[in-house]
Write a structure and sequence with these properties.
Blueprint (H helix, E strand, L loop, with lengths): L1 H14 L3 H9 L7 H26 L7 H20 L2 H10 L1 H26 L1
Length: 127
């Protein structure tokens, strides 16, 4: 269970800790990215943050979900969203402009691998 707990907190840190700073920079106008990029980033983080509930439950309790269908639907949407983003994403297009295609591909692969434990935990929690 230690692996799941470590991954939960790493995922929590990646999704939640930067959120207030990003919101402040958007509200104050310091973030000069396009609306599409900002919207995709915030909506993606908010949606994935919902999965932290199941991730925490799986990591810290031996219970399974009383609403497994909700988590299966959430997981399906999260996986489809992740796959679609590989091919059509304002955020990735912006990243290519800023850091280049090679670095964007490397970061995308890392991000995909990073979120796999959360997806597995959500699946196991719902099962």
């Amino acid at each position: 269970m230690l692996f799941w707990q470590i991954m939960f907190w790493a995922t929590f840190a990646l999704l939640i800790l930067p959120f207030p700073f990003k919101l402040v920079s958007m509200i104050t106008g310091k973030d000069k990215r396009s609306f599409a990029v900002k919207f995709e980033e915030i909506s993606n983080a908010a949606f994935l943050a919902i999965g932290l509930i199941a991730f925490w439950e799986y990591s810290y309790s031996s219970n399974t979900s009383s609403t497994p269908m909700f988590w299966y639907v959430w997981l399906s949407i999260a996986v489809i969203w992740s796959i679609v983003a590989i091919f059509k994403s304002s955020k990735l297009d912006y990243a290519k402009e800023q850091i280049g295609t090679k670095a964007t591909v490397i970061l995308s692969i890392f991000s995909t691998i990073f979120f796999i434990p959360m997806f597995i935990a959500v699946f196991n929690y719902a099962d």
